[in-house]
């Protein structure tokens, strides 16, 4: 029976392919090759390097799942947002597969994919709030009763994950910085250093992390020699303020919108401090917290495959000759 969807994700620095059974949501194949090590040296993603590594990794992964080709009913691919030079690699592969296997093509918005990481093996739920914290984005969305999306807040500058990456870069800790800073913060013994939480008195719902990044930079310049204990203290103060900023804005949003369910997705939602504090906030507002499995918080093709199942059911296909990278193909209207 042809009831499986193959999905490709290559929006940033992870090359990933997944195959999902659209009727049972069972994952039949999943593989991801991360480029973190290659970019670490530069303190961030180098687009040209990312593009070259995708062109090597994607065919290698595809080779491993050839046995499933006869079961496929569609090909899906992340088409935006992301690094264009990275996206095109996945899109080219998806188009050639769709053409050669004579299958329909589905284009999936990466952010929508992250939301589907809450529903990898089950039917999606509507009527909930979602916090998306990744390297490229920080936003709170509302999914209404019919599945339509509304952005309630986003970052005016850096994203939550990006600010961790930038602080790690300032301390020469490589890329990505999220888990490095989180682990360093856990080791802090002296926890007296305190950074001010951005926009605490502002009624605005949007986030801003650039001021906090600069506070961290200034603190670092005060020390001629950065030993491990100072680094961990600074990492702790930074993480505390960054998480407090998210909690403060979410509290303001919860007061306005009475969510019964609240999902947290994106690579940075792996942060345990943030998860714990959101749990407490949700309990206070009698709201059920929904988390993506830790393994699938960061970029992966399974969330794209899962989003594609819903798109398939609604016949949301794109033409192979269509320019799905172009701005008129930006879809974040519904789940
Ligand atoms: O969703 P993702 O894999 O890629 C994008 O779509 O951007 O998120 C990657 C981001 C990076 O900025 C990384 O530093 C951050 O998520 N991240 C974390 C943690 N783990 C990953 N940020 C804070 N704490 C973490 N534990
Ligand atoms: Zn992502």
TrEMBL record:
<keyword id="KW-0963">Cytoplasm</keyword>
<feature type="binding site">
    <location>
        <position position="114"/>
    </location>
    <ligand>
        <name>Fe cation</name>
    </ligand>
</feature>
<comment type="similarity">
    <text>Belongs to the KAE1 / TsaD family.</text>
</comment>
<dbReference type="InterPro" id="IPR017860">
    <property type="entry name" value="Peptidase_M22_CS"/>
</dbReference>
<keyword id="KW-0408">Iron</keyword>
<feature type="binding site">
    <location>
        <position position="165"/>
    </location>
    <ligand>
        <name>substrate</name>
    </ligand>
</feature>
<keyword id="KW-0479">Metal-binding</keyword>
<feature type="binding site">
    <location>
        <position position="182"/>
    </location>
    <ligand>
        <name>substrate</name>
    </ligand>
</feature>
<keyword id="KW-0819">tRNA processing</keyword>
<dbReference type="InterPro" id="IPR022450">
    <property type="entry name" value="TsaD"/>
</dbReference>
<feature type="binding site">
    <location>
        <position position="299"/>
    </location>
    <ligand>
        <name>Fe cation</name>
    </ligand>
</feature>
<protein>
    <recommendedName>
        <fullName>tRNA N6-adenosine threonylcarbamoyltransferase</fullName>
        <ecNumber>2.3.1.234</ecNumber>
    </recommendedName>
</protein>
<keyword id="KW-0012">Acyltransferase</keyword>
<dbReference type="InterPro" id="IPR017861">
    <property type="entry name" value="KAE1/TsaD"/>
</dbReference>
<keyword id="KW-0808">Transferase</keyword>
<feature type="binding site">
    <location>
        <position position="271"/>
    </location>
    <ligand>
        <name>substrate</name>
    </ligand>
</feature>
<dbReference type="Pfam" id="PF00814">
    <property type="entry name" value="TsaD"/>
</dbReference>
<feature type="binding site">
    <location>
        <begin position="132"/>
        <end position="136"/>
    </location>
    <ligand>
        <name>substrate</name>
    </ligand>
</feature>
<feature type="binding site">
    <location>
        <position position="110"/>
    </location>
    <ligand>
        <name>Fe cation</name>
    </ligand>
</feature>
<feature type="binding site">
    <location>
        <position position="178"/>
    </location>
    <ligand>
        <name>substrate</name>
    </ligand>
</feature>
<dbReference type="InterPro" id="IPR043129">
    <property type="entry name" value="ATPase_NBD"/>
</dbReference>
<feature type="domain" description="Gcp-like">
    <location>
        <begin position="31"/>
        <end position="305"/>
    </location>
</feature>
<comment type="function">
    <text>Required for the formation of a threonylcarbamoyl group on adenosine at position 37 (t(6)A37) in tRNAs that read codons beginning with adenine. Is involved in the transfer of the threonylcarbamoyl moiety of threonylcarbamoyl-AMP (TC-AMP) to the N6 group of A37, together with TsaE and TsaB. TsaD likely plays a direct catalytic role in this reaction.</text>
</comment>
<dbReference type="InterPro" id="IPR000905">
    <property type="entry name" value="Gcp-like_dom"/>
</dbReference>
